[in-house]
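Deliverable D5.2: sample structural annotation.
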Amino acid sequence: MGAFVRVRYAVGAGALAVMVAASGWAWWARHDSDPRYGLRAAERASGPACTGLAGRWPGRLDGHRRERVDVTGAEAWGAGAVTARCGVTSPGPSADPCVSVNGVDWLLEQARSRQAGRKVLVSYGRSPAVEVTVSPGVRAVDTVLLDLSKAVAPMAQRSHCV
């Protein structure tokens, strides 16, 4: 009888572990993507560089207010007119155009931009990198990059566009 109780307890503990793991996964899944804006958390979004960036995101971009987003390391402005994700892989050397804005280099990923129908820019030479998408309706991409560069600038830069 005692062995039976131990077996039931072990099975019960295993089932409890599965339930706890499943509920933890459900919580993470809710905070891993936001279908309203097509956002999902980047691989390194919960690291120290991205958590430090969280308090520096601008409240407005191109006249658009920042929206509440339930994705770790991500933000959106103007109902998704502009989105940003911290924690993406830093791009390597590329023939795509690169521009420096207040000391932050941004690579315009042309193939991804054509595919997405919006500009896709990634901070260059910083690890982790920040990915920004800008819809065609945004009037002043340069102003958006100015404001975002202020937030991204404190992240360590290891290389520059040439």
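Annotation notes: Residues 2-30 form the longest helix (29 residues). The first strand starts at residue 33 and ends at 34.
The annotation will be released with the project's public dataset once the embargo ends.
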